[in-house]
């Protein structure tokens, strides 16, 4: 198997491994692809991801084969370019670029202009006729190489550059002249020698291998690890290394560099979108050193900017770029995010990939591209990440609300967020762990800030464009972001900031509108999102393609309405205990629990009956015509017990029973492990009067609502925590008996079902027997995960993160179903249940019912429906369609 693949020049692309991202990484595969369709790509080669992993496992050593293959590939590049690496007269320079399977923005390191030393820099200057350019390139190289490979403090170099500019009275890098750069190179070399105890490496081959090693090793850097964990990227993927001939955007006024999207990544509109800089190298655009210019005339005019657009300043190169955009979209059939450089008027392509986009843009592009005939409906459905819909389903700022606008930045990532100002990532994490909403405010963000950006509700930066680190990462995370807000100035030592002419302290509340770039004082009210348009179209397509039903987990009429609005086809889980916590009812519930005998309990339950009936009636009215699964009381009673003295006193007064007596009762009822204690159907077995009351409330409410006319609901009465057939048999008989009584009293009968949750391993194993008593199973995967893994969800916090970090759990098993283990129980129970009761209805109501990967599994084992919390219903609809395709 090849360790290195060539691209550009006369490279041969016949080995399919070269276009496989798992082998050559995203960047390498796409460079080969672009070169293969005849686009202008500087020649180079890609070292496989496999090599990076074997380098790491070999204890950071290169294999002999790799050394030989790289030497051969370097010769390929030299031939293609017509220059030799290390040639003192006319040197070949290369970039060394990392490229994992998926893009990890800013996570891995790149070295540009490699191959320069004290001798070749003179050759480059003489040969190009641009000595400023040669010395600028050399100082960039020393700076990057020292940072990435030698791991010296980059602040030292930046400081030296600042001082050099100050000494000469310059404001920007552009003013630096050839001999200014040359002097700075001397200073840089001194810094290296002082810090390292050795001079800057002059041997170009040593430079090359040093850079390759650094890219390999960056896979195990802390920031790469954090990024991997946040994005569920396995450590076993590794990164490829791309070595590529340099092209120069810093060769004067006819040279430039830029980044662009073939459509607007923020709105999805079909307009070219991007930023560029004249006389600059790649990193300058994203680093925010200079303010980038607009790509198109229309955008520049709309923004009222002075600096010319590329369309105006370099019409020929721009025309060529536009042609490439169209070619790339037709080839990849998706929006592309590209990097380009213009060297003395000639366009070169340095990267392309499917562009990250906001949820809104993803939807619009999917629907538009299907309409344009670029993709089919199925592909459109698959294009949108269901989880990304979350961004669209949440509220935006109320356009009619008053806004105390402080200033404006770039609308870098849409959505609205309010929260307390925090000035660094650690504080953001700390405060958010205390359940506070925070807005992270930074001059600009860097990969070290990722954890803080994740913890924040929104991100505000003083510097950086639409493609800055903050903007790209925020869009990926779905966090609203306003970038490049020059009105913001931060005083970190005082923990204060100014926005425009107003002072703020860390902890003051501000609001961001990522769609307009506005920054506002205080909290601005929000409104519900609009669900028509592209969203509605895609959801219709999804509904046509999905097999499973989608229900919701809801227990309040409000939640039911929201869920119905989002397309829920019934209730999959109505947790009745939530109704017990209501302020007006908790005392009756406590009286019931602490009663000494059945008659005491019945008296208390009698007070609860009308309340509970009212709850159900309202839910049934909201859900007319749809099935509603109602779970009878489930939690351990200790959750309702009074704990504070005032609570005991209150209760003692209302029951006319002594406080001491109540406390003694409470002590008697204490459980050591309530989650595995007296709960679920065990309550129904020992205190049948509780379930009788609930069943009565359900059937009376159903009769009441049916009597009002309209489509009747179908109550599905669900018995929790069943482990044996006999439990379900006893309780099913109880429910049937109550139904019979109510129907006789009311003079009507209604359809209803009795079924059970499958949430204990024994129930899953005995599903064949249990199904004889059940008309439906609903997989309670939260408890099933707890009981199968022997992990208490409430106590797992202490070890869950390290378990995920170490790869012991692939993901948090309470978020994404443990398909390998718990999944077997689900699959087996589904099979055994169907074997005895072929028409048994199967659904899932755990948290996993709203998780796309778990939904895909439900499709695979043939469940009839999934049930998700109201805001997850559209996510589940789309995920169910994707699973069915
Ligand atoms: P990242 O993944 O962080 O974008 P890249 O490897 O793509 O890192 O490179 C960083 C910057 O350097 C980009 O702007 C890229 O276009 C530029 N660059 C990389 N290789 C070359 C090259 N051979 N010639 C000119 N510019 C390059
Ligand atoms: Mg790049
Ligand atoms: Mg449960």
UniProtKB/TrEMBL annotation:
<dbReference type="Pfam" id="PF02896">
    <property type="entry name" value="PEP-utilizers_C"/>
</dbReference>
<dbReference type="GO" id="GO:0046872">
    <property type="term" value="F:metal ion binding"/>
</dbReference>
<feature type="domain" description="PEP-utilising enzyme mobile">
    <location>
        <begin position="436"/>
        <end position="517"/>
    </location>
</feature>
<keyword id="KW-0067">ATP-binding</keyword>
<dbReference type="InterPro" id="IPR018274">
    <property type="entry name" value="PEP_util_AS"/>
</dbReference>
<feature type="binding site">
    <location>
        <position position="782"/>
    </location>
    <ligand>
        <name>substrate</name>
    </ligand>
</feature>
<dbReference type="InterPro" id="IPR015813">
    <property type="entry name" value="Pyrv/PenolPyrv_kinase-like_dom"/>
</dbReference>
<dbReference type="GO" id="GO:0005524">
    <property type="term" value="F:ATP binding"/>
</dbReference>
<feature type="binding site">
    <location>
        <position position="783"/>
    </location>
    <ligand>
        <name>substrate</name>
    </ligand>
</feature>
<dbReference type="Pfam" id="PF00391">
    <property type="entry name" value="PEP-utilizers"/>
</dbReference>
<dbReference type="GO" id="GO:0016301">
    <property type="term" value="F:kinase activity"/>
</dbReference>
<feature type="region of interest" description="Disordered">
    <location>
        <begin position="1"/>
        <end position="23"/>
    </location>
</feature>
<dbReference type="InterPro" id="IPR010121">
    <property type="entry name" value="Pyruvate_phosphate_dikinase"/>
</dbReference>
<dbReference type="Pfam" id="PF01326">
    <property type="entry name" value="PPDK_N"/>
</dbReference>
<feature type="active site" description="Proton donor">
    <location>
        <position position="845"/>
    </location>
</feature>
<dbReference type="InterPro" id="IPR002192">
    <property type="entry name" value="PPDK_AMP/ATP-bd"/>
</dbReference>
<comment type="function">
    <text>Catalyzes the reversible phosphorylation of pyruvate and phosphate.</text>
</comment>
<dbReference type="InterPro" id="IPR036637">
    <property type="entry name" value="Phosphohistidine_dom_sf"/>
</dbReference>
<feature type="domain" description="Pyruvate phosphate dikinase AMP/ATP-binding">
    <location>
        <begin position="319"/>
        <end position="371"/>
    </location>
</feature>
<dbReference type="InterPro" id="IPR040442">
    <property type="entry name" value="Pyrv_kinase-like_dom_sf"/>
</dbReference>
<keyword id="KW-0670">Pyruvate</keyword>
<protein>
    <recommendedName>
        <fullName>Pyruvate, phosphate dikinase</fullName>
        <ecNumber>2.7.9.1</ecNumber>
    </recommendedName>
</protein>
<keyword id="KW-0418">Kinase</keyword>
<dbReference type="InterPro" id="IPR000121">
    <property type="entry name" value="PEP_util_C"/>
</dbReference>
<comment type="similarity">
    <text>Belongs to the PEP-utilizing enzyme family.</text>
</comment>
<feature type="binding site">
    <location>
        <position position="783"/>
    </location>
    <ligand>
        <name>Mg(2+)</name>
    </ligand>
</feature>
<feature type="binding site">
    <location>
        <position position="780"/>
    </location>
    <ligand>
        <name>substrate</name>
    </ligand>
</feature>
<feature type="binding site">
    <location>
        <position position="575"/>
    </location>
    <ligand>
        <name>substrate</name>
    </ligand>
</feature>
<keyword id="KW-0479">Metal-binding</keyword>
<keyword id="KW-0547">Nucleotide-binding</keyword>
<dbReference type="GO" id="GO:0050242">
    <property type="term" value="F:pyruvate, phosphate dikinase activity"/>
</dbReference>
<feature type="binding site">
    <location>
        <position position="781"/>
    </location>
    <ligand>
        <name>substrate</name>
    </ligand>
</feature>
<feature type="active site" description="Tele-phosphohistidine intermediate">
    <location>
        <position position="469"/>
    </location>
</feature>
<dbReference type="InterPro" id="IPR013815">
    <property type="entry name" value="ATP_grasp_subdomain_1"/>
</dbReference>
<feature type="domain" description="PEP-utilising enzyme C-terminal">
    <location>
        <begin position="533"/>
        <end position="883"/>
    </location>
</feature>
<feature type="binding site">
    <location>
        <position position="759"/>
    </location>
    <ligand>
        <name>substrate</name>
    </ligand>
</feature>
<keyword id="KW-0460">Magnesium</keyword>
<feature type="binding site">
    <location>
        <position position="631"/>
    </location>
    <ligand>
        <name>substrate</name>
    </ligand>
</feature>
<feature type="binding site">
    <location>
        <position position="759"/>
    </location>
    <ligand>
        <name>Mg(2+)</name>
    </ligand>
</feature>
<dbReference type="InterPro" id="IPR008279">
    <property type="entry name" value="PEP-util_enz_mobile_dom"/>
</dbReference>
<feature type="domain" description="Pyruvate phosphate dikinase AMP/ATP-binding">
    <location>
        <begin position="24"/>
        <end position="301"/>
    </location>
</feature>
<keyword id="KW-0808">Transferase</keyword>
